[in-house]
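User: Can you help me understand a structure? I only have the sequence.
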Amino acid sequence: MTTTALDQCARWNDPAFWQDLAPNLHVCDPAFIGTQSQITYGADVLKTLQADLLEEGYTRFEPGDWNTDIAALADFIGTVHGQGLLPVFAFIYDEYWLLFFKQRAFLAHILGEDYRALPDFWAWCLPPGKDSAGFAAHRDRGHVSLFPGNRPKSLTLWIALTEATAENGCIYVLPADRDKTYGTPNDGTWSFEHNDIRALPCAAGTVMCWNQALLHWGGRSSKRAQGPRISVSVEFQRGDVPAFNKPLLPNDGLPPFDLRLKLIALQILQYKHLYPLSPELEAFIMSLGMGGA
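Assistant: Let's start by predicting it. Here is the structure, written out as tokens:
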């Protein structure tokens, strides 16, 4: 019988297990991290992206050279998904954190130099077929995440690792300027015209960003899909507002291994209503002393 990663949960707290699982990726490797650099943007580009966020609540862009193999990152998530692991375990590896660390210039422009990463992140692998779907329609935090004038206190960054299409479950949004309850205490009630809904297909490597009051959702895949929709996201907030969730993470480095494990366990607990705990995942969470979290 073939042993899968899911069968080896007793070894999940050992960095060597994860390194053996993905020899071409890195686990808390300072030398590798030191070779990676931020992605820079011109002032005009940043101004346009900020204007998009203020008007419609979202923006998207292609950074160009990621200096990483995006297809390989997608392939690994597909592999762990096939072995029964939730894709969020990809955040064990430096490469997935670095995708977001490299966006410091953009994040600092929108949220200020002292921005923080929230302990809220996820990864998706939606194979072709009618049973695969992204998250249902929701607002990440609602109107409390906006200043007057709709300036964001917090953002979600979502990165496509494969092409996202209408057939494999791309992101859909209701643009803020078409949303009758956006930014109001009534934003739990939705009222809009269906032709205001906007599909956001995109190429692999595209960064999608929305403020956390925007109504959005992931589509449902189809047997017509040419491949899976694989993506990752991390949430961020300004450093000068109260924490929306704890612990907030600094923006000048990557979490150490033990903290990565605990943060992944937190994500699994946060989303257990969508992904019920298997015995293996429950054993993992208990091993970290988080059974009562």
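Now, to help you interpret it: The chain has a mean pLDDT of 94. Strands lie at 58-61, 116-126, 154-160, 171-174, 198-200, 207-211, 215-218, 229-237. Let me know which part you'd like to focus on.
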